[in-house]
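Handout, section B. The chain below has 439 residues.
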Amino acid sequence: MRTPASLPRRSVLGAAAAGAVLIAGAGAGTARAAGACSVTLTARPSAESERLRLAQALRASEFQPTGRYVPAATELRIEVLPFDDVLPTLWIGQWDYYGTLKEPRSYALKAGTNRITDPYGGPVYFSLEGAGERAGVTFRSGSVPMPVFRLGQTEEAAFQRQLDAYPDVPVVELVGPRSIVTLTRDGALLYRDEDHAALLRLLEQIIEAESRISGLDSSKPVHRPKAGGYHFTEVSVVPSGVGAYATHGYNGFPRAYLDRATTVSGLSTRGWGLYHELGHLHQQMAYKPTGLTEVTVNIYSLAVQRALGQTSNLLTVDPKTGLNYFQSARTKFGTDGLTYEKSFGAYEKLVPLRQLELAFDDFWPRMHRLVREENPQSDYTETAKRYRALATYASRVAGHDLTDFFVNTWAFPIDAEGRAEIAALDLPQPPVDPSALTD
């Protein structure tokens, strides 16, 4: 679904454990012992600097989770040790764009003792901007542990004991190497019998599939995967007709979607909504005019379907016509008044983007890499410029003149300047008509 309209896109591991337990996840290490909790943070690029490097429309998460919760109007006392002369930022609260409390509150910290009283309370996170520097934080008072499952470190039985040991903490988290899943306690209890390790491994597989189609292969520094994780959070409310959403920092899912987001069977077979919303955090700005916001995002959704062995949504057959989306789109080619934006349905609009990768090897990873390296600039009002970028960059990546494909067959709104840009490349015609290809 669309990003919010006002944004520019769019028990501690076993309660009876003795001694300190090291828990590392999503960039933060937490040492816990009776009456003590300390966190070691490792600095990484900010979410905004990563957005700019990746040439993306939305910035993703920069949070490092701690597994601690602060009750409302309770003084939190922490000690900050800036080992490498960098100071973290403290965040308290949950993301919930359409809710009463829309976002976590941020607090600048100083070296030494810090006392913070947040009026609303919530889970505790830190961000630390830099390139590998470290800082330490010791929680002295005011916070409590919350139930947390960390992939590769928490046993399922221990997590279940946490759920029973902390009935008054209203937030539960699941943490993987590149994922943070924040749930209300009630939401988490709905599916507490899931295999949470399998769930997080599946989520990591989904993230990896979207990373691969984005060409994040570390072949150059600009092509390394995003620093830190992606944040998936249960939200209290969504507008009518919205199943889930994406915006800066996170993906939001209402309680009604958790059967698909927090169960292995649901996420592996019916998770298109999550694949789609995560895709919004991978979309590049250069070739995403407003009319394509809900189209290019599904480049990533289709990639996840292939990675999970699902049948492509583009092959879904309409029982009324007996046609799939490749076939129904083809019946419209050459008709009077044909326009890409108005003549084709949502899935039909996705067909030409899939045909490009059927016609040209490694198309979308190469497209992403080229756009990252050149990073052309445009703003949200420059629709014609972005359509031009789509056709011109696609022709360059394909090594063939795609004017006929974009303009004559699919009726994309490529203006005279865009057609001239493609012609100036002096590329040969494609050996196969991409518009004839199908899964």
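Note. Residues 5-27, 31-35 have pLDDT under 50 and may be disordered. Compare this with the example in section A.
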